[in-house]
Amino acid sequence: MLAERLKLSAMPISKALFGLIVASALATTLPGFAQAADAKKTFKSSSAALEQGLADYKRGDYAKALPALEFAASDDQLMAQFTLAQLYSDNAGTETDHAKAYMLYQTIADEHSDADPDDDNRAPYIAKALTALAGYLRVGIPEIGLKPDPERAADYLHHAALFFGDEDAQFELVKLKLKGEGVPADIASAKHWLAVLTQRGHAGAQAFLADLYWRGKFMEQDKVRAFALITVAVEHAPPRERIWIEDVYQNIFCGAGEGIRKQATGMVADWRSRYGRKVDDTGASRLGPLVPSATRMCGNGDPLPLLDAQGARPTPPQPTTTAASSIPPQATGSLRDVRDIGIKTTEGLPTPSGLTPGLAQGFVEGPQTNAH
Question: Which residue range(s) make up the domain with 51?
Answer without folding.
Answer: 1-185
